[in-house]
């Protein structure tokens, strides 16, 4: 019996059934630990399928949904699944146009997840309005070791960014924030 631990670089295109097919595959093999679905054309209509993946009693440790077309519309179902997932250690959601509104919702959801350690939210359209939410995430979640926020619109001299940097300088030396 072979054990599938990694499902990587599956280009599924714009087929509407692709996300549902992934869920079906993962349901049939709860041993997938690494799921890389970057560079596909998944959109907000696919959030329910990926929420279902996160809610499965699996051992999914790494989920890469970067370089897709997810937006802030319909994120609630995905965010609710992030909160209840107790196996995910790393999430790459970079290069998705979730903008400031979606970023705020995702940051709030991440506050409720006590397992996740590495989060990549670069190139997502976050801006200075998210600084307070970023600071709350850092203060309320002790498991996050890496938070990548590069290539967003946070502004180097914004008061919120300065507060984040001061806070990060005073916390655990292993913590890494990329801005």
Automatic annotation (TrEMBL):
InterPro entries assigned: Leu-rich_rpt (IPR001611), LRR-containing (IPR052394), LRR_dom_sf (IPR032675)
Stated name of the protein: Uncharacterized protein
């Amino acid at each position: 019996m072979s054990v599938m631990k990694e499902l990587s670089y599956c280009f599924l295109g714009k087929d509407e059934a692709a996300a549902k097919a992934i869920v079906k595959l993962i349901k049939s093999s709860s041993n997938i630990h690494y799921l890389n679905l970057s560079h596909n054309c998944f959109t907000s209509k696919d959030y329910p399928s990926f929420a279902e993946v996160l809610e499965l009693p699996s051992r999914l440790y790494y989920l890469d949904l970067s370089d897709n077309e997810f937006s802030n519309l319909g994120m609630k179902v995905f965010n609710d699944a992030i909160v209840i997932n107790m196996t995910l250690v790393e999430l790459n959601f970079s290069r998705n146009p979730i903008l400031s509104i979606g970023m705020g919702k995702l940051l709030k959801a991440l506050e409720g997840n006590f397992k996740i350690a590495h989060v990549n939210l670069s190139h997502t359209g976050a801006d200075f309005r998210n600084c307070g939410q970023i600071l709350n995430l850092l203060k309320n979640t002790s498991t996050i070791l890496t938070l990548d926020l590069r290539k967003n619109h946070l502004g180097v001299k914004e008061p919120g960014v300065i507060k984040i940097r001061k806070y990060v300088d005073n916390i655990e030396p292993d913590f890494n924030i990329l801005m």
